[in-house]
């Protein structure tokens, strides 16, 4: 495990080192991790019918969500993916994703659904938000790609202590660090699922 306390690395140093670590995983390791996360998720979460789940399409060595998305769709749950807000460019909208949804690439070359306002779900109507992350620590703190998209999107949710959605991080085991240097706007996670562990705070 990366020992953040001993070397006191900055957020950007941790970001760089963990992004390299997850990008070095082989295709086989990624595939095995994706299958394990699928099993691990359903072992820990018993979903009522038609659960609304915010997810993401993997990029940059992130934990591959494709098996999990397929399983959730097969069980008739509703999947929503992040779309970078077309006007403010700083927060995320969550839009319904189905097998034939038209997709487009955002400014980071990540696939997102083509904006259709009638398919957007307000954040507070999602039951779960499964979030990508670069690094997490033993207190459930999350470090992302550095755009602040999730933190800005969740700012009101955190301030007003909303009940929904439940925030769950998905990560490879190698993305865990001992302690992250945190910032005032960081929104901690309630659970983190890795291929081998389930953390809850
Ligand atoms: N799969 C996935 N989708 C996501 C996120 C994510 O972390 N993962 N996001 C979570 O917020 C948002 C996108 N945020 C991102 C922020 C920075 C970079 C990135 O690659 N930055 C480059 C610099 C690119 C540039 O400025 O042109 C880099 O740091 O190398 C990617 C995504 C929305 N969708
Ligand atoms: N609630 C907020 N209000 C205003 N600015 C914010 C807020 N949250 C984050 N920011 C800004 O966004 C920038 C990036 O934040 P941070 O490094 O925490 O992103 P991240 O968590 O790594 O990325 P992401 O949430 O996109 O995965 C910071 O410079 C910060 O100024």
UniProtKB/TrEMBL annotation:
Cofactor: Mg(2+)
InterPro entries named among the record's database cross-references: FTHF_cligase, FTHF_cligase-like_sf, NagB/RpiA_transferase-like
Family annotation (Pfam families): 5-FTHF_cyc-lig
Enzyme class: ligase
Catalytic activity: (6S)-5-formyl-5,6,7,8-tetrahydrofolate + ATP = (6R)-5,10-methenyltetrahydrofolate + ADP + phosphate
GO BP: any one term: tetrahydrofolate interconversion
Gene3D superfamilies in the record: NagB/RpiA/CoA transferase-like (3.40.50.10420)
EC number in record: 6.3.3.2
Binding-site residues for substrate, renumbered to this chain: 57, 62
Domain of life: Bacteria
Endpoints of the signal sequence: none
Binding-site positions, ATP: 11-15, 142-150
GO molecular function terms listed in the Swiss-Prot or TrEMBL record: 5-formyltetrahydrofolate cyclo-ligase activity; ATP binding; metal ion binding
Coiled-coil regions listed: 11-38
Keywords: ATP-binding, Coiled coil, Ligase, Magnesium, Metal-binding, Nucleotide-binding
Family designation: Belongs to the 5-formyltetrahydrofolate cyclo-ligase family.
Protein name: 5-formyltetrahydrofolate cyclo-ligase
Organism annotation: Pseudoalteromonas byunsanensis
